[in-house]
Amino acid sequence: MIGKLCLRAVNFRLHILGSSSSGNCSLLVTPHARILVDAGLSGRRIEQALAKIGESIKDVDAVFITHEHKDHCCGLVGLARFEHLVFFANRETQQAIQASREKMPGNWKIFETGSCFTFRGVTVSAFSIPHDAADPVGYAFSFGAAVPAWTVAWVTDLGYVPQLVREKLRHATHLVLEANYDCGMLDNSGRPPSLKQRIRGRHGHLSNDLALELLMTLENNCLRHVFFGHLSRECNSPELVSDAMMAVRSLRPKCTFTVLDPQADCPVSLEESP
After folding, report:
1. Coil, strand or helix: which one is 94?
2. pLDDT tens across 210-254, in order?
3. What whole-number distance in Å separates Cα of residue 107 and Cα of residue 79?
4. How does strand 86-90 pair with strand 108-111?
5. What is the pTM of this model?
6. E strands of the chain, at which residues?
7. Residues 6+ away with beta carbon under 8 Å from 128
């Protein structure tokens, strides 16, 4: 799916290469940067997905990691051979990744959670999210000369939405948001009670209902496109997410909503142009 909105004098592209409990990776292309957000697919699959959209890992500038879980960083082993890549993470995430894997890239740029910095014309805000990882973060990438600028935010892998996260999303124009599970499907699944409790916990994942509640109450008049991602293949479906979001569609009629199918093998792309 490709959507076009003529709102800013800067064009960009967003490609979701994979988004599910099995692997997460996206490419953000701005006028001066090509950024991967997470590398939860194998290095080979990332290269293949990039080729499908006419891109190459050789042209990617950096990889921003949200946390050390396998479905967000397993591809780092395959990407380690590309010496030009810069890998961004906070210290706790970087150390957890290095401790769990033998061959890891050496070109790390370490930031402090809660900090704001600039990379190739993109202002990056890395903010804390509640998840059972070393020091997980969400990201907001802002760019463009207009006021307000384009702001593309990633918020996946969190058990609830604290006020800090709401503040970071107030000016997002585009949002990749977790809708991990349907409560009924999780209840009826064959997963052990301990796993169900972890998923539902305050450091677990967002349900369809919690994602809906966030969008219904979020103070944001800039939001133009929401991608619902990180769907569980066993405990959710695109149809259930779409049905759950009917109320927010009427509340935000100028916003486009895209549900990312965890079974799909084709990148989902959005292009914004002046």
Report:
1. helix
2. 999 999 999 999 999 999 999 999 999 999 999 999 999 999 999
3. 11
4. parallel
5. 0.94
6. 12-20, 23-30, 33-37, 62-64, 86-90, 108-111, 116-119, 122-128, 137-143, 150-155, 174-178, 225-229, 256-259, 268-272
7. 113, 114, 135, 136, 137, 138, 164
In this structure, the strands spanning 33-37 and 256-259 are unpaired
Average confidence (pLDDT) over 22-35: 96
- Report, as an integer, the average pLDDT of 201-206: 98
Sheet holding 33-37, edge to edge: 108-111, 86-90, 62-64, 33-37, 23-30, 12-20, 268-272
Domain boundaries, the chain: 12-260
Q: Measured at the alpha carbon of residue 5, what is the angle toward residues 224 and 162, in degrees to the nearest 5?
A: 15
CA distance 210 to 248: 12
Task: Supply φ then ψ for residue 71, to 5 degrees.
Answer: -75, 5
Q: Which amino acid is at 47?
A: E
The set of residues, in sequence order, having a beta carbon less than 8 Å from that of 45 and lying 6+ positions away, is 18, 23, 75
Task: Tell how strand 256-259 and strand 12-20 pair up.
Answer: unpaired
Residue 8 has pLDDT above 70, yes or no: no
Per-residue model confidence as pLDDT tens digits over 243-267: 999 999 999 999 999 999 999 888 9
CA-CA distances (angstroms) from residue 193 to 42, 69, 190?
30, 21, 9
**Fold observed for domain 12-260:** Metallo-beta-lactamase; Chain A (3.60.15)
| pLDDT score, position 103 | 65
* Amino acid of residue 49: A
d(CA 259, CA 237): 9
pLDDT value, residue 148: 66
Residue 250: Cβ-neighbour burial (10 angstroms; 0-12, 13-18, 19+): exposed
CA angle, 182 then 168 then 18, to 5° = 45
